[in-house]
């Protein structure tokens, strides 16, 4: 369970949103939508404890985020960023980096379901397209089997077929809480809940 209660986001240029409140149940697939600059990505950072709101409260499993260690928060979550700049040579190194090197068969299964060849794990990151990188990191994060999966614009580099495959994979996840930020209509429609960020 994730709850925002009267949360404010502000930067030097001013308030981005104010008194934002929402509730995400365990196992619910939720998409945060809104125009560029409305704070969608910042909400994902707040959930991880990377960004502390000046006002309001955030709860994870009924516990105030301030009362949970950052390490404990992140051990519950896997995060796929919007801008993928991987400091590794290939997918195998990525698996070692995030701690899924013992789950290669699981990663390969997700890669296959996302429409990639298993050999893609050994291909140089520099030779991959944006969509291939995106699917590799999603498959690797899924293999961690964390309770909460955070996806920032997960469809941004994917074609229609790849989006459909990703939606199917996400729908088949058992008892996982998915929180994504996206403006893709097909992705939004596939979610259990949409939270629209309108700004102030």
UniProtKB/TrEMBL annotation:
InterPro entries, sorted: AAA+_ATPase (IPR003593), ABC_transporter-like_ATP-bd (IPR003439), ABC_transporter-like_CS (IPR017871), Metal_Ion_Import_ABC (IPR050153), P-loop_NTPase (IPR027417)
Keywords on record: ATP-binding, Nucleotide-binding, Transport
Superkingdom as given in the UniProt entry: Bacteria
One Pfam match: ABC_tran
The keyword Amino-acid biosynthesis belongs to this UniProt entry's keyword annotation: no
A molecular function (GO) term: ATP binding
Residues passing through the membrane, by range: none
Protein name as annotated: Polar amino acid transport system ATP-binding protein/putative ABC transport system ATP-binding protein
Organism: Natronoflexus pectinivorans
């Amino acid at each position: 369970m994730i709850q925002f209660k009267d949360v404010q986001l502000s930067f030097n240029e001013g308030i981005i949103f104010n008194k934002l409140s929402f509730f995400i149940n365990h196992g619910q697939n939720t998409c945060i939508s809104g125009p560029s600059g409305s704070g969608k990505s910042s909400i994902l950072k707040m959930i991880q404890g990377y960004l502390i709101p000046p006002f309001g409260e955030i709860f994870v499993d009924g516990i105030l985020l301030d009362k949970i260690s950052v390490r404990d928060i992140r051990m519950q979550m896997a995060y796929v960023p919007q801008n993928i700049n991987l400091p590794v040579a290939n997918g195998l190194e990525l698996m070692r980096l995030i701690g899924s090197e013992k789950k290669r068969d699981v990663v390969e299964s997700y890669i296959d379901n996302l429409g990639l060849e298993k050999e893609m794990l050994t291909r140089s990151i520099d030779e991959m397209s944006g969509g291939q990188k995106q699917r590799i990191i999603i498959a690797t994060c899924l293999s961690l089997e964390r309770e909460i999966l955070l996806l920032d614009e997960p469809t941004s580099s994917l074609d229609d077929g790849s989006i459909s495959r990703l939606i199917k994979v996400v729908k088949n996840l058992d008892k996982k809480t998915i929180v994504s930020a996206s403006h893709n209509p097909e992705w939004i429609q596939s979610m259990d809940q949409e939270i629209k960020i309108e700004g102030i």
